[in-house]
Each structure stands twice: as structure tokens, then as C-alpha cells.
Fold:
Amino acid sequence: GENVEQHPSTLSVQEGDSAVIKCTYSDSASNYFPWYKQELGKRPQLIIDIRSNVGEKKDQRIAVTLNKTAKHFSLHITETQPEDSAVYFCAAMDFGNEKLTFGTGTRLTIIP
Amino acid sequence: GAVVSQHPSRVICKSGTSVKIECRSLDFQATTMFWYRQFPKQSLMLMATSNEGSKATYEQGVEKDKFLINHASLTLSTLTVTSAHPEDSSFYICSATDSRDSGNTIYFGEGSWLTVV
Structure:
């Protein structure tokens, strides 16, 4: 099955700086890579996603890059704000089976 | 947009009893739903795939006789934790995919906190 690794587990950045979280996956059949933000005790919130036919996607301060050959993808948050503080999860899925495999999570703390 | 609703949001039960958690797709039909478990400060781990009208498919290491899944209709899947023990205390969350749009959007329920005392 799919295995998704995520680094770092914790990340602290100064407000206004950029944050980068990286994930690798093992199953070459995976073709969908969402990123989620999760508040304690709440459902994961999709913040951005990318499909395997695209190498990069951007939505305002958030961007995701995908390297299919190396099987890794990254989340980039620019101009970080205190409200960006949360736990972030990457995930990988094969649309063929719809099974979502999550990374181990990154606790991001924005220092005012 | 499509909504997946989960109930109850919080439940406390005594050790040895069973508890049922419901997951409903409110405005779309879901032939497949997924159940995840999340322990504190850990990631979401897929427990099983709930298939409408057929048996659920369990992930390795998940006891099918302990975590009973019933997907009796296209909008409802239930997870029953049988003979619950304190180590079953966790955040349980379901998801379903709305395939009506080409995006195959994944929707999560609100999650259910289970505490076994």
C-alpha cells in the first residue's frame, strides 16, 4: 500500500516569512495530492491540492509543487500570518481506489 | 456544497459496552465511505472502506469483529465499536467522495470523539 512521509514534524517561522513542508510517497499509482489544515478536534480542511498531470499550483499565499519522478511534493506558504498556525497534513490518493493516505503531520507555529 | 454529517460529535461510554457512530452524506449518494481514526497528536489512519450493500474492507491490523461497519443505504454508513476499551478512545472521522463533479471532491464528517471510561 501507499506510504506517505512528511517533514518536518514541527516548524516555527517568524510572521511574514515563508514555510515549506515536504512529503514523499511510495506508490506510483497515486495521482491526487491534497494538503489539509486541521484544528484540534476538527475535521481536516482542504487548503490546496494537485493532480499528477500538473507540476505546480498556486492559490494566493499557498503553493504546492509535485515531482512525480522523485515521488515528492511540497507545500509552500508565503507571508505567513498567525492564523496559519495549525497542524498540516499531506496526503496521497489513487483515484482508482479513493483511499487517502495521510502523512504524519506538521505542527506549524507562526511567531508574531 | 456537498456535506457529510457525523453523529455524535462526542460520546462517553463505559468499558465493555458498544457505541455506534453515524456518517451521512446529506445531498449526494456515496457508494463508498471511509472511516479513519486519529489518536491525539497523530495522523489520520484509514481503518476501513465502507461499501454500500456489501461487506466493508478493513485495513491491515484493524479488527473487523470489533469495528463493525454497516453501509445499508447510499447516504448512511455506521461504525460500531464493540466491547469498547479505554485504548479505543480516539477521534473517529468518516469521509465520502462526491463524484458528481469531475473534481471528485472528498468531504469529511465533523468527527466523533470517543472516550471509553
